[in-house]
Amino acid sequence: MLAAMITGMGTWDIGHFDNDSAADFSGSLDDALESERENIIRTALTRTIETEEYLDSDEACAVLASAALIAAQCPGGTPVTTAYGPKKPLPVFSPDLRPLAVQALDRVLAPESELVELWDEAGHGPLFRKGVTDLKAVLLT
Which pLDDT tens digit goes with each residue over 1-45? Predict the structure, then answer.
């Protein structure tokens, strides 16, 4: 395990759910009605795509978690088995979420993103970017 303690964010590893923000996002999915879960993910992606300001790390973490959940349903996707992911069943996501997730991930990797800065400062920027790029590759298949 990559013991990554990033200032200002409860992070313990580089995985898409290995931080407090993603765990909280998963909890919000579990708290919602099953019929609302896709819209929660869509909203997280759309809000990030439309953000022209500096992207907060909490929003970026919600995008990473959302993209990982969408990618898990794609061919070649990795199931989300972490204890920090949603515990309740998710619907089969609409295919139009895939390109939204790719756009939102591009925004997460943009220069005006706190999460990129935090991983760069911690010395794990290249590993973080590889994880996001791998996730994008699944979503693009």
Answer: 444 444 445 666 788 999 999 999 999 999 999 999 999 999 999
Q: At what angle do helices 34-50 and 97-108 cross, to 10 degrees?
A: 40
Burial of 83 (0-12, 13-18, 19+ CB in 10 A): exposed
* Dist. CA 19–CA 14, nearest whole Å: 8
Q: Check if the beta carbon of residue 40 is closer than 8 Å to that of residue 95.
A: no
Strand partners, 11: 19
Rounded Cα gap, residues 18 and 37, in angstroms: 21
**DSSP three-state, residue 104:** helix
Closest CA to 41 of 7, 92, 116, 107: 92
